[in-house]
Amino acid sequence: QSALTQPRSVSGSPGQSVTFSCTGTSSDVGGYNYVSWYQQHPGKAPKLVIYDVNKRPSGVPDRFSGSKSGNTASLTISGLQAEDEADYYCCSFAGGYSWVFGGGTKLTVL
Amino acid sequence: QVVESGGGLVQPGGSLRLSCAASGFRFNIYSMYWIRQAPGKGLEWVSNIRDSGSSMYYADSVKGRFTISGDNAKNSLYLQMNSLRAEDTAVYYCVRDINFSFDIWGQGTMVTVSS
Question: Each residue of B35-49: pLDDT tens digit?
Fold first, then answer.
């Protein structure tokens, strides 16, 4: 159960778009369309922002979008806002009712 | 919502039981999870129990030491943690699974394993 690989940090200016990558293997990201993304502000619990690779829960702005190609999933935030500054974690089903998370990416809004 | 309790300071080798009280939804029709986060670190899946407690699953790091259980009558989830190690130090979140993603998280309860 190795962790998914995420860049440690990403930055962008307000109004810009940023993309986070999440790389796994054919046993997790590449093998299932059960990739989800979570936003976590300091001291708070994570919040679901994308599920099933590219679906948004009710209440999540359409500025958030997800995709997948092979063993790599991506989260894109367009029209960056100050309140988007947070840590972002990807997660994938890994078979046998096991799950694997990425190490997280810290988003800085410049 | 879900509310965790039971965290605290425990010595290495000790035991602790975490509880999670669910409200606003029928606990026994969802799979429920424990997910932890060590200080300054990322998220780690720990264990989950399928609806109605039919099956339980564990990460390799806790297998044989932790036991997940649920009480449908009390709408509650538990995690019995034995043989605790320093590396088990983390905030433990109780989480609801909605079709292979996690939509409801508690505020977390801190477990510190230290002498």
Answer: 999 999 999 999 999
